[in-house]
Amino acid sequence: MIKINWLEGYRSFWNLPLVSTLCLSGFLFSAGDVRAAGMSHSPDAVVSSSLPLPANPRGLMYFPPDRRSATSVPLNSVPSTLRQAQGSGQVRAHQGSEDLGYEDIPVIVNPAVERNIHYFQNVIHDRFQEWLTRFYAYRPLVEEIFVEVGLPKELIYLSLVESGFNPRAYSRARASGPWQFIKSTGRLYGLSVNWYVDERRDPIKSTVAAAVHLRDLYDTFGSWPLALAAYNAGAGKISRAIQKTGTRDFWRIARTRYIRRETRQYVPRFMAAMIIATRPSLFGFHAHSQTVHQYDEIRMDESIHLRSVAKETGISFDELRRLNPELRRSVTPPGREGYYLKVPVGTSESVEQAKSRMKTWTQPAPPARTWYRVRRGDSLSVIAHRFGTSVRQLRNLNDLSGSLIRVGQRLRVARGGKDVTDSGDVKWYRVRRGDSLWSIAKRFRVSVQDLKILNNLRSSLIRAGRMLMITS
User: Pick from 220, 215, 119, 219: which is nearest to 161 by CA?
Assistant: First the structure.
C-alpha cells in the first residue's frame, strides 16, 4: 500500500499572494433577502423569496457577533430547534483558531438565515440529506486540511453550499468541483486543468486550494462574512463595495445595490448550512456515511483507459471513476512524472501485477471530413483542389447548377453516405435529424452515460451532423 500524503507538494502554495481575479461560483437555490438584524429595509433593497417568512420577524443571534462588525444584532426568542441547539452547546463557533490569528466564525441568525434553514429542512430535505451523506465520507480528510492551514473547522461546510461536495459539479459560470473553482483561480492555486485532468474535481487537491484561498481572503478583509462574500463574488467586487459604502460590515453592505443578490444570499446560506451540519440530528437529518473516502495509489507511467484497468483487475469501472473524478476522459495522462491512479484499498498489489497486461491507450483519429464551410475567397475549384476531388463532383454532391457559392455555406466534399464509420477499434456515428443519445445508445447497445464519457458531453443535447464516438 502506498501512503497518501495529500499535503506534500502543496505547502508551497500556502504562501501564494492573493490576486484580484478570484473564485466565482454558481448557485443552487433561490432564497430570501438579506438584511442586518434589527434594521429596516432600505428602498433599494432587493426582496425576492419563494419561501415563507420566519415566525419571528426580528433578527436573532445567540452567539457572539464578529468583533470587527458594527452591526448590533439583538437577542430574541429562538425557534425551538435552534434553542435546543443553543442550550445544549451543540451548535457553536469553532474555538482554537485564536492562537493562529484567525478569529471564530460568528454564528448569526436573522430572517435570511431562518429562511434558508427552513428551505434546507423542509423544502429540499432529501437533497440536503444527500449532500450531508456524500460530504461525511470526505469529512475526516477535509477537516484535517483546514486544521492544518489553521482555519476554523466550520468553514468545511461551505462546500455544502457550493456543490453539496459533488466532485463533478459544474456551474453556469464554468466553475467546477466540490469547491467550485473557475479555471484561472484553480491554476493560481496549483490545480492543473488540461485535456486529460481537471484537478478542480480532485476532492483532496481542491480542498487544499480552497483552504489557502479562504485564508488569503481573510488576510485581505479581516472578517469571515466579507471573506465568504469575496469567495463568491471575487475580492475586487467586495473591495469596491466597501469603498463605495464606507463600511466593512457585510450585513450593511448587503442592504445596498453594490453587491448582487446571489452574494447577499451566499453568507446566510452558509450560516444555515453550518448550523444544520454542526448538529444535523436536531434538524431531522442524519450524518452517518456508510463509507469513508480512502484509497491506495498506483503510479501509471503510460496512458491507460480505466476500462482496461477494470478488465485486467476486476475492479468496477464505476468505482475507478468515483475514485478518480479528476480524469476528464477516464484516461490516465502521459508524462515523465507519471500519474498516481487511486484504487480501492487493498487492491494496489493486484493492480501493480496487472499493469503489464494493460493496453496503452492512443487517441483515435477522427473520421475523414465530409462537410466543409465556405470561407471568404473560396471557389469550387479551390475547394475541389483542397479535398482532391473535381468541380463536377462537388456540384453533383451539393445539387449545384452553377459555380456560385456563399460565405458560410456548408458543402459536402466527400461521399459520406454511411452514417457509421469504422476506424480500427473505434466506431463513429454521424447524428441524424431526430436522433437522441438514448436512441443512439439503444441502437449500438451502449449506455447513455458511456456516450457522454466518450464524447465529453455535459448534457444530452446533440446536433444533426455531429460525429459521435461509439466504442473505444
Answer: 119
